[in-house]
Structure formats: structure tokens, C-alpha cells
Amino acid sequence: MTKTLLSIGHGYSAQGLADRLLPQGWRIIGTTRSPEKSNVLRAAGIEPLVWPGKDLGPAISEASHILTSVAPVDGLDPVLAHVRDEIAANATRLDWVGYLSTTAVYGNHGGGWVTEDSPLTPATERGKARVAAEAEWSAIPGLPLHIFRLAGIYGPGRGPFAKVRNGTARRIIKQGQVFSRTHVEDIARVLEASINRPSPGAAYNVCDDDPAPPEDVIAYAAELLGVPVPPAEDFETAEMTPMARSFYAESKKVSNERIKQELGVCLIYPSYRAGLDALLAQESGG
What we know:
The protein is of the alpha/beta class. The protein has helices spanning 12-21, 38-43, 57-62, 78-90, 125-138, 161-166, 184-196, 214-225, 242-246, 257-261, 272-283, and strands at residues 4-8, 27-32, 47-50, 65-68, 96-102, 113-114, 145-150, 152-154, 171-173, 181-183, 203-206, 232-234, 253-254. A seven-stranded parallel beta sheet has the order 3-2-1-4-5-7-11, sandwiched between helices.
């Protein structure tokens, strides 16, 4: 029987999963807000569905698996705001549901380690909205929900090289600041592993083994490209947008032991160095 994934808000991370599932014969329905993007999805092997717009109910009824990548808007989850009843009506029929969240739910831990069992104490409005969305999805009776808390995402077409090349990369220095990251291909591997080993109610941190200060990543990218390392800027005096500054409100190291122990995931890119090395090689045709 053909497995059908409904990918709501089909984007960068979801396409990584689709690239793994399509060769296995999966049917994938992907929603997009843009009619113009339908052709892009179709070319990638995805059945496009413009939503909000068209009725999502039939696709929910046809799906065996659902992945939602839609972020909260004004503090509310847009998917549940529109189709909670339809999802709830199909809850016990579904094999697997995945919700892509963020490590921002943990808030600031002063550079210390967090696990999936750490308290959710978000420091930003963005993080608070994600905690609320996780709780709302979890409250649907019988839903085989799996929560994936993603660290900073990078991969082909999304990384520091472009900014380093065009001179817009910045090395903002804030004492003790550390972030975790994850390559999009490793996200796809984690999602696929969870689909193959469903554990309803589980939450997973998705990140690499090497949390690091953001300025180190920029410096390494510049070294790989053979260009000067951008000058250091002090966080306290640097000119930054409120959104950019908000990312520095949280400092933590995120543990990924659960995806290894429970899902058997072996990361392709266990560090930002390995990931950036591979991205540059791909760009160079290596």
C-alpha cells in the first residue's frame, strides 16, 4: 500500500525528507501559499496544493503521515487554527505526525547543556509561541505526534558562504555565546528514522555534535574561501536589528543523544566544519 505524506508548509527541510522518501515510492502532497511555486514542487515530484486556499480536508483524509513545517503567526499555529477538527477526526487513523519546532523553546541556559527533558523556558516571543504550539498539537487525543526541535539550519543554498563572499558576514562577539546547528540532510535522516521507528509523544533535538560560537563558524567559512576573516564586533555596541539581536538572547548547547540512542541516527555532518567542507566541495563540483 502506497504511503502518503502530507507536507504542510512544504519547504527547505521538508524537501530534504521528500528526496529520501520519493525513491521509495511514497506519494507526497505538499502545500504552498504561492501558486507560482506549484510548478517547482511538481518538478520535484511533489503534488502541489495551494493552501490556505483550497480545501485541505481531502488531503488530510488521504494521508498516512503528516509533517507540518508551519511556524506560529501572531502567537497562533495557523494549521490548527484552520484544520484542527479535520486532523483530530483522523488522529487515530494516521501512522505518524511530525511537528518541526525549534530549540528556542528551551530559552537561555547560559551556555549550558539542554536535553529534551530540560524545562521549556523560552526567552523570546518566538520561542513562547513554539511552546504553545507544541502543547496544542500534543493535546489532540490519539494523535501519533513527534516533535522535532531543530537547531540553526544550514545546507545547500543556505549557509555562511554567500555572506562571506559579498562582504556582509559579521563576527558579532558576545562573551560565552554558543549555538547549535544542523545540516538539512541530517534533519531528513532524523525524520525518516522516526517514521520507521514511530514513538508517539516523543520529542527530539535535531542538531550536530559541535555547538560553537557563531563567530567561529564565520571565521572558518572565510578561511575555506581564502578571504579575510571579518573583523570582530562587540555585541553591546554593534548595530543590529531587533530580530538579529533577539537571537543572542539565548545561549545553550543542545544534546542530540536521543536521536542516536532511540532512532539509531548516525549524523552525516557531526560538526559545522564537516558540513561547510562538504558544501564548498559540492559548490566546486567535488
